[in-house]
UniProtKB/TrEMBL annotation, chains A, B:
GO cellular component terms listed in the entry, alphabetical order: cytoplasm
Subcellular location: Cytoplasm
Alphabetized UniProt keyword annotations: Acyltransferase, Cytoplasm, Lipid biosynthesis, Lipid metabolism, Phospholipid biosynthesis, Phospholipid metabolism, Transferase
InterPro entries per record: FA_synthesis (IPR003664), Phospholipid_synth_PlsX-like (IPR012281)
Assembly description: Homodimer. Probably interacts with PlsY.
Coiled coil segments of this chain: none
A single GO molecular function term of this UniProt record: phosphate:acyl-[acyl carrier protein] acyltransferase activity
Classification of source organism: Bacteria, Pseudomonadati, Pseudomonadota, Betaproteobacteria, Burkholderiales
Annotated protein name in UniProt: Phosphate acyltransferase
Enzyme category, top tier: transferase
Family annotation (Pfam families): FA_synthesis
């Protein structure tokens, strides 16, 4: 029901995914009048009267909308009727309700939001946390490193994904006290082969692809993600403005179209859509609110991938191994 | 002497500026063999035997290079022989030596690094702090707001530059405890007409140009700056790769060249080169280490502008007014 476009995007994306995956079964949770358009033997409608609005405060979503589509979808995961939940809705509400309904894994104090940012190697760097936790300790950062490693091992089939600690310089002496303690803890975890720790990385390393995973507190992660989204949007706006300035530039745009399209495909963030909420006793994926059909399909695909690769079991296993350091 | 290219960039930039500004006098501080190329009636060579290397730890620069070109240039400012100092060298060393030689203004605990990031309106958003201070209190953020406002008023002739507080959401309830206290303090300063406080802004607002100034702690600021530099560099690399893929794409590049050049001019960060070290008893500007001649000219121009517009006196005035809240 959620996202900027609601069922007009999510329903066609669901139908496309059902076509592509012969084993896929979908439970569509929401108002039957809005989701009625879907008629597929492997799609089942689960009616929910209430909907969490994109701007609902977390308290409203938690206390006053106990039969919301979001809540019911997460309960289906808890009951084992669904292997994963996907939402394009209100991120804060999704995280809070997921934490309340599903609970965190033993040893994990706070779930994290992990998102892949495209890098220049053609791959993507998994960055976490992206906004769930504004005040982090070094132990939270270690938990993020373990969660992110399990995610990359399961979904990207990486053997030993490398973890970078986001800092303001590559030297070990840089950063505030918490970051220095986190670096020590990550080094210890590396020595015990619980993660593969690379060392400090800087903001630009995210887009260089220096490491597979970058860990940071949710405040820094969220500001960084939004700043880069802002820059990307500015670059795209200015390119469009310059190419549509007059008849000559529009002709140039025509000539350059195949190249510009190839460029767009390579930097298309829709291909990476779908943030993982990690550290919960169930699989939950968050699509960007502004996702179009293609982007929402990618978020659904990730959830399918995660269920098929038994991400939850793999995370539980890694967390158990590392728990003595948490 | 500093920067990635040293005098091969800084000397020609100095000569170009001397041509353009008939009143300008330059003191070139460094090794006479390296700076000997400059011969101009309004340029004076000040010999310095030692040079702070780009990778010298701050301690080495401070304690073991007491006659470095950086140190002597800052002493010329302190003695009133120079109205401003410009360096393309080691940022950490420049900040530490500037603080030691010049001292901070009464009421300012920590100097800040302010840098303008281009935004989609065609202007630039002044962001501070960008890395001088990794652990900030709400009082530091207020000081940054006052320093940044004085800078924009002097250099951009803005009457009431607006200040945004970098946060993870626009609602007042967002952020960690320090950020919430900072928001209160900034609101109080606004009520006393000491600054013009807009409220919370998010990472993307920097590039939207929502406010004239964005304040944040140096850790968040530095990570954000480097992440956006990393993204910009990735976009530029991929554009180049796509346009040079084969004969057809190279032809397309030829057609699109005037438009791509116009685009490049608009996003050209060299036009904004020159970070201000604010809160000191003297004017100090830091050029990006990788600056080419054009970029270094811009950093020099800013220093000239700041001296002509009496930035230091204006900052002192604003800081005195606001000191009761610090």
């Amino acid at each position: 029901m959620g996202g900027d476009h609601g069922p007009s995007v999510t329903v066609p994306a669901c139908l496309a995914l059902l076509e592509r995956h012969a084993q896929l079964r979908l439970l569509l949770v929401g108002r039957s009048d809005a989701l009625g358009a879907i008629a597929h033997p492997r799609a089942e409608l689960v009616h929910a009267e209430e909907v969490v609005a994109m701007d609902d405060p977390v308290e409203v979503a938690m206390r006053h909308k106990k039969r919301s589509s979001m809540r019911i979808a997460l309960e289906l995961v808890k009951e084992g009727r669904a292997q994963a939940a996907v939402s394009a809705g209100n991120t804060g509400a999704l995280m809070a309700i997921a934490r309340y309904v599903l609970k965190t894994l033993d040893g994990i104090e706070r779930p994290a939001i992990a998102y892949p940012l495209p890098n220049v190697t053609g791959g993507a760097t998994t960055v976490l946390d992206l906004g769930a936790n504004v005040d982090c300790t070094e132990h939270h950062l270690l938990q993020f490193a373990v969660l992110g490693s399990a995610l990359d091992m399961a979904l990207k089939s990486r053997d030993k994904p490398s973890v970078g600690l986001l800092n303001i310089g590559s030297e070990a002496i840089k950063g505030n006290d918490m970051i220095k303690r986190a670096a020590e803890l990550l080094r210890e975890a590396d020595q015990k082969s619980l993660i593969h720790y690379y060392g400090n990385v800087e903001g630009n390393d995210i887009f260089k692809g220096t490491t597979d995973i970058v860990v940071c507190d949710g405040f820094v992660g969220n500001v960084t993600l939004k700043a880069t989204e802002g820059l990307a949007s500015m670059v795209s706006t200015i390119l469009k403005q310059e190419f549509s300035r007059n008849a000559f530039t529009r002709l140039a745009a025509l000539c350059a179209m195949p190249v510009l399209n190839a460029f767009k495909r390579r930097v298309d963030h829709r291909r990476h859509n779908g943030a993982a909420l990690l550290g919960l006793r169930g699989l939950v994926f968050k699509s960007h609110g502004s996702a179009d059909q293609l982007a929402f399909e990618h978020a659904l695909s990730k959830a399918i991938d995660a269920a098929e690769h038994q991400l939850l079991q793999k995370i539980q296993h890694r967390v158990q191994q590392a728990a003595t350091l948490f």
